Amino acid sequence: MANRHDKPLPEIELPRYLASETLSLILHTIILLRAPKTLSMGVDVVEFRLEDLDGVYQKLKYAEVSKNIDEQVDVFFKTGLTDIGPDLSKGSLSLCFHVNKPTNSWFGPKTEKVTFERWSLPVLINTTPRPLDDSTASVIERNRTRVTSQKIVADVMGRVYDLSLEGLESLPREYQYDIAIGGAEESTGGRDSFTRMAGMPMLFNT
């Protein structure tokens, strides 16, 4: 197994009402890009449209993956943020891909989790109240926020695609993933979620 490849993404700042959708999009995209190369559209992959931002993207059509991502994004907003200023909080997510490697110990055979790739995403969440009235100033502010956020999403997605092309030669044949809150690879104070992809194919590199 090659050394772990760290793939840090740039820190992004998002308004709270756009953050859940954006973080889910990023996680779905990374997992899709690390999924089998023999995926079939409509069978393994489905298109989805963002509700608050323009764009149509693709994700794995596995309910367990969507459920896992939704749960971890929800946990992130409940427990993973630290206030750093007025209407501004900071947190991070990490997505780790690993294999389970059999090892021997004094107590008999056991399985060791070996991480070969780790994506990290630092996030700033702006909780400034969103202007909802129809005044000219409110409309301008909503449009400005939307345009700014769309550029942020486009930039980070471009970085995701670029990083996904690195280290392809070292990917194992099959692997699993964890989503961790707080950037911790292991559950040492942060919260993480190990997904076995039950009821669906393992992640294969063919």
UniProtKB/TrEMBL annotation:
<dbReference type="InterPro" id="IPR012445">
    <property type="entry name" value="ATG101"/>
</dbReference>
<comment type="similarity">
    <text>Belongs to the ATG101 family.</text>
</comment>
<dbReference type="GO" id="GO:0019901">
    <property type="term" value="F:protein kinase binding"/>
</dbReference>
<keyword id="KW-0072">Autophagy</keyword>
<dbReference type="Pfam" id="PF07855">
    <property type="entry name" value="ATG101"/>
</dbReference>
<dbReference type="GO" id="GO:0000045">
    <property type="term" value="P:autophagosome assembly"/>
</dbReference>
<dbReference type="GO" id="GO:0000407">
    <property type="term" value="C:phagophore assembly site"/>
</dbReference>
<dbReference type="GO" id="GO:1990316">
    <property type="term" value="C:Atg1/ULK1 kinase complex"/>
</dbReference>
<protein>
    <recommendedName>
        <fullName>Autophagy-related protein 101</fullName>
    </recommendedName>
</protein>
